[in-house]
Amino acid sequence: MRLPDKKVLQNLALQTEAAEKNSDKNRAAIGLDVGERFWGLAWSPDGSVVLPLEVAPASEGTAALERARKKTGETKPLLIVGLPVSDDGSESPWCREVRSVAETLREKFDVQLVNERFSSQESVTKGKERRDDLAAARILEYGLRESQLRGKRLFPPR
Q1: Cβ atoms of 53 and 65 closer than 8 Å
Q2: Superfamily holding 24-150
Q3: What mean pLDDT do residues 69-97 have?
Q4: Prediction pTM value
Q5: Rounded mean pLDDT of 66-73?
Q6: Contacts of 140 (CB under 8 A, 6+ apart)
Q7: What is the percentage of the chain residues whose pLDDT exceeds 70?
Q8: Strands 38-44 and 29-34, bridge-based pairing
Q9: Closest Cα to residue 130, out of 118, 139, 121?
Q10: Residue 40: closest CA among 120, 148, 113, 102
Q11: I need a surface site. Which of 35, 40, 93, 146 has the fewest CB within 10 A?
């Protein structure tokens, strides 16, 4: 069996280093579940541990996001927003509203959209109470995992 030569190994090391620099691992991030009545927020101080943060009335969502942004300590932190894609992969009518919200946030956040994959349904507590902050945590987990695995955005801006 032939071993790779030194040049191939150096090239591989450079590619790995570049991928790690572009990864969202070790970067603070915020997750957002946009709802008609409430917004759920979660945050990750390091790109791996994800914590529910708060539930805010939709009318106070941007103020809640500003508090979360300050918590990260970053000027333009990563914001992963859940996009409610239908089971067949098509965009639901609510997607337009979520995209609009995401677009308004691009000035202060590095916004990435990710399929929220039933995050709200998975975040119902035993007492049948919905927890939008838990849904946001799920969204943030999905987004960080996809970003680290693929190194690209799933739903580019339109």
Answers
A1: no
A2: YqgF/RNase H-like domain (3.30.420.140)
A3: 90
A4: 0.74
A5: 92
A6: 29, 30, 31, 42, 43, 44, 50, 80
A7: 68
A8: antiparallel
A9: 121
A10: 120
A11: 93
